[in-house]
Structure formats: C-alpha cells, structure tokens
C-alpha cells in the first residue's frame, strides 16, 4: 500500500497469513517486524489507518 501523507510518502507491505506454528523465521530483508492479530494501541498511526482501511483487523 502506498499513501501520501502531509509530511511523508509511505510504502507499506503487510500480509495476512495463517501459520501452523509460531516458529516462523524471516530472512535478512526483514529487520523490523512483529505479529499481531488485533489492532494495538501502539501501532504507528499511519500503519493503523491503513490496516483499518483494509478491514483485515478490527
């Protein structure tokens, strides 16, 4: 998703996945990530808005 904000242009990629185990490992291209299954108060406001717009999480 790409979005133009008043102070920035962001390109964010996020995925909805279902896994059988919590032992998922990402490669060196991913230095900052975390798993969520609900909206959390400490998400960056831009990311929270984009996730809300998809309807993936409530």
Characterization of this structure:
This protein has one helix and two strands. The chain has 58 residues and is of the alpha+beta class. The protein has one helix spanning 45-54; strands at 2-4, 9-11. The protein has a two-stranded antiparallel ribbon. Strand 1 (2-4) and strand 2 form a beta hairpin. The model has no long low-confidence stretch (mean pLDDT 80).
Task: Describe the protein's topology.
Blueprint: E1 2-4, E2 9-11, H1 45-54
Distinct helical segment count: 1
Alpha-carbon distance between the two ends: 18 Å
Number of DSSP E strands: 2
Which ranges are low-confidence, i.e. pLDDT below 50, for 5 or more consecutive residues? none
Structure described in brief:
The chain is an alpha+beta fold and 58 residues long. It contains one helix and two strands.
What features would you highlight for this structure?
17% helix, globular, single chain, two-stranded antiparallel sheet, alpha+beta, 1 helix
């Amino acid at each position: 998703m790409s979005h133009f904000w008043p102070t920035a242009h962001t390109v964010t990629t996020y995925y909805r996945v279902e896994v059988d185990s919590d032992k998922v490992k990402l490669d060196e291209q991913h230095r900052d990530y975390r798993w969520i299954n609900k909206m959390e108060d400490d998400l960056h406001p831009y990311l929270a808005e984009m996730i809300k717009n998809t309807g993936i999480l409530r």
